[in-house]
Amino acid sequence: MELDLNATIDGAPTPERAKGLRRWFARSGRGGIWFVAPAILVLLLVVTYPILYQAYLSLFRSAFFVDHLEFVGLRNYVDTFSNPQFWHAMWRMTIWTAACVSLQFVLGFAAAIVFNERFFGRGLLRALLLVPWIVPVVVAASTWRWMYHPDFGVINALMRQLGLIEQNVNWLGNPDLALWSVVVVNVWKMFPFVMLMLLAGLQAIPRQLYEAAWVDGANILHTFRFVTLPAMRAVSVVTLLLLIIWTLNSFTIIFVMTEGGPLRSTEVMSLYIYRLAFRNFQFEEAAAVAMILFFVMLVFSVFYIRRLYVKEQD
Amino acid sequence: MRPSRRVLRYAGIYLAALAFLAFALVPFLWMVASSLKPPGEIYTMPPRWIIGNPTLQHYVRVLRESNMPRYFWNTALVAGGTTLFALAFAIGAGYGFARFQFKGKEFWSLFVLFSQMLPQAVLLIPLYLFLDRMYLINTTHGLGLSYLVITLPLSVWLLRGYFAGIPRELEEAAMIDGCSRLGALLRVVMPISAPAIVATGIYIFTVAWQEFMFAMNFATTTRTKTISIGIVEFMGEHVVDWGGVMAASVVVTLPVLVVFLAVHRFFVRGLTEGSVTG
């Protein structure tokens, strides 16, 4: 009786019980798949199945208003590659991504360096700097659209007061300017994120590295070039890849501000796919374009994941 | 010489910080200001920097005379449901990946990571056709199902990282005391991880709260439209009610702003994990 009580209170396992437990741990270790399975099944249903179906769909073509699909092999892909509108969207997406990512990165890096210094009220200012990143995309896009307003916009007013422009400019209505106007908005929205990521990197650099460099007579430029930059390589690559993937993916910000216009000057790939499918009802052609975009993204994803994963394993 | 140089440097840094802050905040402040101005003050050139007669008329219009309250309810439903389901799946999967060895573990964790990278535009068409075939177009649960695509992978990843950092001994002690594996997760791991789970939940909620592309195509009835669509509706075809748009924007932004500022640290740690110190 007394012995039993003891066993329950401190749970001291007898040798026999310990062996049983160890075996049980080992056995239950194999049960992991059951914890993971529900999420995997959901993802198979809403990610893998749709993509495979899209790949299948891209091999067919339907006549308008006819509920019959005709197998055309790779015709949709061939037609897509010979379609100037596709290449236009591809080119626009390239400019959009290159401009957004480089500006976001430079601005975010500068902000990270500034906010890595100690000064009064840094915590509060840094939190406030995150506002653009947190504001919902639709809100950001509509607010900037209002600020870009050709007649009553605050941007025209400011630039005229500063003497930068003489006449009101139609920022979103001019095919030469529209894409760049939206780039500014996207840079505004995402540079705080870059700052957050790089700040984490800067704070992980040991102070001793800087002190050693100063002892060796390095100035600010030297330490930046030979201490900061090399130490920031890993986090910079991950940040850049994330930015590229997100920027290639952007839809809402452009759609709300310009709907791809004027004269398709802001029609990147995602908007092109949307227009083909939901405006022109060419679902199969759109599926082919979406598969091409999928493979483009895959390349960047592989780079990103290799970066992240290899580091994880170490 | 030294102190004055330090003062100069300090002033320079402060000025730069304030410049960044101005760039970040002016659009936000302009949104708030525009939402409080009567129409006569909104449409002037040059614009009025100071609000002469602040008014809540735009807020009244948004909250009383439009569909926005209904859209709010729709959005709360779809975002709440998505959060619940995504969290349940993600806690299980995160725990499974963090604690177990099983066949194909490498493959499935890569699979989750890849899903996280997938562009929505790539999934737009097949998901639309899929939901259409299941009679889930223009339903709240259909939209919620599509939101699992964009929230579940990162949630699994964030929680996996957090669970992996919890000492194993705690669960083993619980199991020696007679807990089952699931019991150890529910009674020991989850209470300890409450902050991480809440943060992940808030992340899921904010993503679903502001999603636009899927909402625009998968939910087009008054009973299912979300607030992102509601804001765009205020912009109309030809005449834009800018006071209304700005008021609706403020109303949509405030809840997100408050909660996200509270949890951003955890979120960033999950994203940078492994790459910072590497």
Main sheet of chain A: which strands, in order across?
1-2
Number of strands of chain A: 2
Category by helix and strand content of chain B: mainly alpha
Largest interface: A-B, 105 and 102 residues
CATH class of the largest domain in chain B: Mainly Alpha
Layout of strands and helices, then pairs:
The complex is a heterodimer of chains A (314) and B (278).
Chain A lengths: L1 H9 L4 H15 L2 H26 L2 E3 L6 E3 L3 H7 L2 H33 L5 H7 L2 H4 L2 H11 L6 H8 L16 H26 L3 H9 L4 H12 L1 H16 L3 H7 L10 H11 L3 H31 L1
Antiparallel strand pairs in A: 1-2
Chain B lengths: L1 H35 L2 H4 L14 H8 L3 H32 L5 H13 L2 H14 L6 H25 L3 H9 L4 H12 L1 H17 L2 H6 L8 H7 L8 H31 L6
Helix pairs in contact in B: 1-13, 3-13, 4-7, 4-10, 5-7, 7-10, 8-9, 10-13, 12-13
Can you offer a commentary on this structure?
The complex is a heterodimer of chains A (314) and B (278). Helices cover 74% and strands 2% of the residues of chain A. Chain A has helices spanning 2-10, 15-29, 32-57, 75-81, 84-116, 122-128, 131-134, 137-147, 154-161, 178-203, 207-215, 220-231, 233-248, 252-258, 269-279, 283-313; strands spanning 60-62, 69-71. Chain A has a two-stranded antiparallel ribbon with strand order 1-2. In chain A, a hairpin with a 6-residue loop joins strand 1 (60-62) and strand 2 (69-71). In chain A, helix 15 (269-279) runs antiparallel to helix 16 (283-313). Chain A is flat and about 75 Å long. Mean pLDDT of chain B is 86; it is low at 274-278. Chain B has two domains: 25-55, no CATH class; 67-272, MetI-like (MetI-like fold, Orthogonal Bundle). Chain B is an all-alpha fold. In chain B, 77% of the residues lie in helices and 0% in strands. Chain B has helices at residues 2-36, 39-42, 57-64, 68-99, 105-117, 120-133, 140-164, 168-176, 181-192, 194-210, 213-218, 227-233, 242-272. Chain B starts with a helix and ends in a 6-residue tail after the last helix. The radius of gyration of chain B is 24 Å and the shape is globular. Chain B has 13 helices and no strands. Chains A and B meet through helix 2, helix 3, helix 5, helix 6 and helix 7 of A and helix 1, helix 4, helix 5, helix 6 and helix 7 of B.
